[in-house]
Write a structure and sequence with these properties.
With 761 residues, the protein is α/β, with parallel strands linked by helices. 46% of the residues lie in helices and 16% in strands. The strands form three sheets. The protein has an eight-stranded mixed sheet, with helices on both faces. A hairpin with a 4-residue loop joins strand 13 and strand 14. Bound molecules: phosphoenolpyruvate (PEP) and magnesium ion. The site of phosphoenolpyruvate (PEP) has 11 residues, from strand 16 and helix 22.
Length: 761
């Protein structure tokens, strides 16, 4: 059964469009279950009708013509209950609805199961038989299992079909919308450029060849290189390998012949596909053929073909890894967009980002916000192959993208864009004005930075200091650890630019989702593993070089250097780190460099640190809450997992109460407290943190003018009243709605996400 299930899912997955996927489902399920009828009904866009979209066994000519209204018939009963309905004789059931055109009179036994994806009923899968009999438990369980597995595939195929097959009666032609989560705010129009990791067959997109002759040439070079490799490996192993196994190498060689795979790939290129796409198409179709074979020896060959395809692909990517012609407004689309992929596209062309994995608190999203690039994350059901070259609208605030936008929709978004631009232009006038509330409370607005380009942007936007310098970013752009001197130069550049403003440098915070190519960490639970201070305390040589570089970089400047320690979860870690910092200071002074003692602070981003905040505050110069990680760890929600993105709630009452405790603890020790997670850069978060007494709000430069505008248009008293109400609330949604309403009432609607004058229906 498991095998059958796997093959059905695989075939549906491989279908070229949605129509085909549906046909495969009904024919394969009918065959697997030995029933006379299998049909699929899909819920339409309005959610009110169930369309008869595919059948094997009922009247084919009724497909696409019939539908049932909610409440009508057994099919909609399955959908409404979101549970299977299994009947010996459907025709006698009070809910049975007779549709003369469909031809189901002779069938009595009925089993319908819902197709549910992310809590939403997408449709109903039905099998029927002439005999009066109830389907047994194992049959029901099989169909439920199959439906659960197919749901994701169907959702995906439907999305793909909507784009790929414009004649699809179910699909919407224009304005196809894909939903993810907001990554970086703003609206952008552009052309999709699909990027994929090196040598990953499945994620190579379809792309028209820019020059067919060049693609053929590149392909020939790749084949030649793979042949040489195989020959070399074959020769090396020849001494130890039995004769039969050596035959495998001959088989590989043959596969690369013109009358085998290579010939097919060439044909595909001649039809206009680029070489990498042609390799994917041909190789994967052969892999599927082999996988279906009953003979286990032949089935194993699927792995060989795949392996060969990977090898060819790796060479192709090596030879022509970089696309050179980029459209003016590129929307970078990928399964898991990384900082390195962002770097592949020239900065002036990169207009938007769409990632199937990750969420608003992933580091790519944080980077995108710093660079002001509208981004949508976690768009799980994206038809990656079909998107290349399509026109897209990225709505980074709403977390949606639209493919093939109609003129009407494009005009609506243009209007929103114009409003946003007008607001940003007004905000520019605040640049040199203080961030002070209407009743005179001054709040320090600092920036989070990492890239060198951030310096001028931050200063232009009126930053009064750096609240978080993510030092891992310069580490990521190298192919080995940077030397102490290399680091000193980079840090000095930043400190000089911001002088006399204070600069908070966080010590290296790798692990979790931040990897260094030259220092790989493989763990099952990376966010609960070797991260942040844990890594650097285990490698004092790295920590010491970094701290010395920071201290040296501050020589002769009046702006304070603040060293900040990430992921502290115990006093012992703090004490060890402080001892190392003391040693580094002594060493620098022994080198004859006159330096001041830096301020040292702790990031509160682990629940343990919340409960020990007062003890920590006693021992340091400042606290700073990393609300991104604190939210993740308090709510046990992976900040990168789009499946649970809706549970990642920075305004969760537990998080807000924790924030307040930290502020009280710091002030109890007369130490300043800041917040440098993304929450500080949102209007609601900034207002609530100000009311709690936070001295510093540190955010990405893009958000700073808007937050300053909010602060200058509200009183401390108003914010405290809001906080008092919020602290009595029990649910994040309630708090979210309340803050939204309060900010609008206070005349701050323009800063509230989604609360614009125009709206997109
Ligand atoms: C945080 O966790 O809130 C934070 C600022 O650090 P990062 O996002 O770099 O993990
Ligand atoms: Mg963090």
């Amino acid at each position: 059964m498991l095998e059958t299930l796997r093959y059905i899912v695989q075939d549906v997955n491989a279908a070229s469009n949605f129509r085909r996927a549906l046909d495969i489902i009904v024919s394969r399920v009918r065959e697997a279950m030995g029933t006379e009828v299998c049909s699929v009904y899909m819920v339409d866009q309005s959610g009110e009708r169930y369309l008869f979209v595919a059948t094997e066994g009922l009247n084919q000519s009724a497909v696409g013509q019939l539908s049932l209204e909610r409440g009508q018939g057994l099919v909609t009963l399955v959908g409404t209950r979101a549970e299977p309905v299994n009947l010996e004789d459907a025709t006698t059931h009070p809910k049975f609805h007779y549709l003369p055109e469909i031809g189901e009179e002779p069938f009595h036994a009925f089993l319908g199961v819902p197709i549910i994806h992310h809590r939403k009923v997408l449709g109903v899968l039905v099998v029927q038989q002439r005999a009066r009999r109830k389907f047994d438990e194992s049959e029901e369980a099989f169909l439920v299992t199959l439906s659960a597995q197919l749901a994701g595939v169907i959702a995906h195929a439907r999305a793909t079909g909507d784009l790929a097959d414009h004649t699809d009666p179910i699909g919407e032609r224009a304005d196809t919308c894909f939903t993810g989560v907001p990554g970086s705010p703003g609206i952008m129009f552009g052309t999709a450029v699909v990027v994929h990791p090196t040598a990953h067959l499945e994620s190579v997109p379809d792309r028209d060849a820019e020059d067919i002759m060049v693609e053929l040439m590149v392909f020939d070079r790749a084949i030649k290189s793979v042949r040489q490799d195989i020959q070399l490996i074959g020769e090396q192993l020849a001494l130890n390998l039995p004769r039969e196994e050596q035959a495998l190498f001959d088989a590989y060689f043959h596969m690369l012949d013109d009358d085998a795979l290579a010939g097919e790939i060439r044909d595909c290129i001649r039809d206009g596909q680029w070489a990498q796409g042609a390799v994917r198409q041909v190789i994967l179709s052969h892999v599927r053929q082999f996988e279906k074979m009953t003979d286990s020896y032949l089935r194993e060959r699927a792995a060989d073909v795949r392996e060969l395809g990977q090898r060819v692909l790796a060479y192709l990517q090596d030879i022509r890894q970089k696309k050179t012609n980029f459209p003016q407004n590129c929307i970078l689309v990928g399964e898991e967009v990384t900082a390195a992929m962002m770097a592949e596209i020239p900065a002036e062309n990169l207009a938007g980002i769409v990632s199937m994995r990750g969420s608003g608190s992933s580091h790519v999203a944080i980077l995108a916000r710093a660079l002001d690039i509208p981004t949508v994350m976690g768009v799980m059901d994206l038809p990656l192959f079909a998107l290349e070259g399509r026109q897209l609208i990225v709505d980074g605030s709403g977390g949606q993208i639209y493919a093939n936008p109609s003129r009407v929709l494009a005009a609506q978004f243009q209007e929103l864009l114009a409003e946003e631009q007008e607001f940003s232009a007004e905000l520019e006038e605040l640049r040199n004005l203080p961030s002070i509330t209407k009743d005179g409370r001054r709040i320090r607005l600092w920036v989070n930075i990492g890239l060198t380009g951030d310096i001028s942007r931050s200063l232009d936007l009126g930053a009064e200091g750096v609240g978080l310098f993510r030092t891992e970013v310069p580490f990521m752009t190298k192919d080995r650890f940077p030397t102490e001197e290399e680091q000193r130069v980079i840090y000095r550049e930043h400190m000089l630019a911001f002088n006399p403003r204070p600069v908070t440098m966080r010590t290296l915070d790798i692990g979790g989702d931040k990897a260094l190519s030259y220092f790989p960490i493989h763990e099952d639970n990376p966010f609960l593993g070797w991260r942040g201070i844990r890594v650097t305390l285990d490698h004092p040589e790295i920590f010491m070089a970094q701290v010395r570089a920071m201290i040296k970089a501050s020589t002769g400047l009046s702006g304070a250097l603040r060293i900040m320690l990430p992921m502290i979860s115990s006093l012992a870690e703090l004490e060890e780190a402080q001892a190392l910092i003391d040693r580094a200071l002594t060493e620098v002074r022994e080198e004859g460099i006159p330096v001041l003692r830096p301020e040292v602070g702790v990031m509160v981003e682990v629940p343990a640190a919340v409960y020990q905040a007062r003890l920590l505050a006693k021992r340091v110069d400042f606290l700073s809450v990393g609300s991104n990680d604190l939210t993740q760890y308090m709510l046990a929600v992976d900040r990168n997992n789009p499946r649970v993105a809706s549970l990642y709630q920075e305004l969760h009452p537990a998080v807000l109460h924790a924030l307040r405790e930290v502020a009280k603890a710091a002030h109890g020790e007369h130490k300043p407290v800041g917040i440098c997670g993304e929450l500080a850069g949102t209007p609601a978060g900034a207002v609530l943190c100000m009311a709690m007494g936070y001295d510093v709000l540190s955010m990405n430069a893009t958000n700073l003018p808007k937050v300053k505008w909010v602060i200058r248009n509200i009183t401390l008293l108003q914010s405290r009243r809001m906080l008092a109400q919020v602290l009595k609330m029990h649910q994040a949604d309630e708090i979210q709605a309340f803050m939204r309403e309060q900010l609008i009432k206070a005349g701050l609607a323009r800063a509230v996400p989604g609360q614009r004058t125009s709206s997109v229906n």
